[in-house]
Design a protein that fits this description.
Layout: E1 7-10, E2 13-17, E3 21-22, H1 38-50, E4 55-57, H2 66-75, E5 83-88, E6 90-91, E7 99-100, H3 104-118, E8 123-128, H4 137-149, E9 153-159, H5 163-170, E10 175-181, H6 190-199, E11 202-206, H7 218-227, H8 231-242, H9 255-262, H10 271-274
Parallel strand pairs: 3-4, 4-5, 5-8, 8-9, 9-10, 10-11
Antiparallel strand pairs: 1-2, 6-7
Helix pairs in contact: 1-2, 1-9, 3-4, 7-8
Length: about 280
Amino acid sequence: MADFPTSICLGDIGPINRLGFGAMRVCGPSVWGPPKERKHALQVLRRAYELGANFFDTADSYGPYVDEELIAEALYPYPKDLVIATKGGLVRPKASRWDEDGRPEHLRQSIDGSLKRLKLERIDLYQLHAIDPKVPLEDSLGPLLDAQRAGKIRYIGVSNFSVAELERARKVANIVSVQNEYNLDNRSSEDVLMHCGKLGIAFLPWYPLGAGAALRSQRVVALSKKLKATPAQVAIAWLLAKSPVMLPIPGTNSIQHLEQNMAALALQIKREDLE
């Protein structure tokens, strides 16, 4: 059977259940505006924690701002073991736009805005959402370092980074996590994942179930039938077994899918089937 640890630590934060919750899907369509059914969105967030997800990932660009507000409405005052990670560095002038903004003045405002919306005095993990090609990376990391020194941020993470960019960031700050797209369909960040494994840095795969092609593949469907599991559960179990630093954050606005996803942590798959 595939043996993988069920928890992970971020710096001295932990243990964190290795199956977290990506909260962006509880916003409105296209991650824009409030949810159509606010009560249901709050139920999804509460249910995620009840099922063992004690790591929630969000960003100020989800909504924008809506996602952070929903998390606070659903779960504040927060359980002691809940770790909330948010991100800054992308702006949404309209639903179809995700524009980089790594200017120090923008990130300073973003950090303070996230603290206020999440009702936190300190954010456990604050991630630079993307590199702004118009701003030197070191300049964008500056406000995060200042906020860390001021006690507003506990740890710093990065998102959508290459190995070279990660190493450049590590010369400036202690980076404890990387969040890149990674799933059965898209393994373009394999080198980043391997590098994180060597360094003991958590790797958060966004879009962990991909666009769906892999879930419909013959091998995944056959294995899911054999195990009496869903294709999504097989894909999540594969991620968990891939590396001990992997911290998948599947998101959904469906309680049924949420319950199915969280059950993947207990799925037992033979090593040869995973390979």
